[in-house]
Amino acid sequence: MITRVLINGEESEGTVPVTDSSVLRGDGCFEVLKARSGSAFALDLHLDRLARSAGLLGISLPAREDLRKWITSIANEGGDCAIRVVVTRGPSAPGEAGGPLVIVFGHPSAPAEGPARLLPVAAPWHAAGVPWDLAGAKILSYAPNLSATRRAVAEGFEDALLLSVDDVMLEGPTFSVAWVIGGVIETPGLGLGILDSITRRVMLDLAAELDIQIKEGEWTLDRLDLADEVMALSTIRDIQPVSVVGHRSFREGPVTSNLSRLFVQRIL
């Protein structure tokens, strides 16, 4: 069940006009934060990314302190939960007056149980490193990604691993990925146009603290033939082991296990 809803800081029943850009065009951006004991984790990093996404879309945000206040208020009420911040351009029907909407609410968020099973899926809609205006923005238009998830589930997997048309590994529909080869962590580089995941950032910081070597770059799917461990990274999943990618199987190893443990400690 969701917490109370704030729209532009005002209490709301959670209704959005049918003429809003998010309804008619999927035109907007969003963030998902994790709250623990009423405190939003990595709030400033999420606000930074939200500002970048809105800037790329040309949407004006309220003052940062107002956003912080609204998110903190929902976190305080939600306790242990996920917090969603949705920013829309506002009305998109001709002649309709109004400005951007910022919707903030919380909902229960249980940690992922067990390892993930991923189906590699070609993602021709992904820029995969080709420059474009919204590269790296966390936009609302997730229909192609969610279609990939549905395909994976229909074929007996939990989710998808998105690949470029050249078979380069990118990210999951709603998460980042990394793997371990000979004790070294490898992960697709941000130059591929993947989302600059906050969980990915924290994982890389933790790995550096543990003196684990890190490589960011570009690899095709067959790179996983050499991998000892694979992990999925997101606000909802935390650092989750991956047991299957297509026909390849993996065990949760010490690198994933240690990073997952330290990540949970970091957010408490």
Give a quick set of tags describing it.
single chain; 268 residues; alpha+beta; D-amino Acid Aminotransferase, Chain A, domain 1; D-amino Acid Aminotransferase, Chain A, domain 2; 8-stranded mixed sheet; 6 helices; 14 strands; 28% strand; globular
Brief account:
This protein is an alpha+beta fold and 268 residues long. The protein folds into two domains: 5-107, Aminotransferase class 4, branched-chain amino acid transferase, N-terminal domain (D-amino Acid Aminotransferase, Chain A, domain 1); 116-267, D-amino Acid Aminotransferase, subunit A, domain 2 (D-amino Acid Aminotransferase, Chain A, domain 2), CATH 3.20.10.
Your description of this structure?
There is one protein chain. By secondary structure, the protein is an alpha+beta fold. It has 2 domains: 5-107, 2-Layer Sandwich (D-amino Acid Aminotransferase, Chain A, domain 1); 116-267, D-amino Acid Aminotransferase, Chain A, domain 2, CATH 3.20.10.10. Helices cover 27% and strands 28% of the residues. It contains 6 helices and 14 strands. The chain has helices at residues 21-24, 43-57, 64-78, 143-154, 198-209, 254-267; strands at 5-7, 10-12, 28-36, 39-40, 81-88, 101-107, 116-122, 159-163, 176-181, 184-188, 214-217, 229-234, 238-245, 248-249. Strands 7, 8, 9, 10, 11, 12, 13 and 14 form an 8-stranded mixed beta sheet that branches. Strands 2-1-6-5-3-4 form a 6-stranded antiparallel beta sheet. A hairpin with a 3-residue loop joins strand 12 and strand 13 (238-245). The two termini are 22 Å apart. The mean pLDDT is 96.
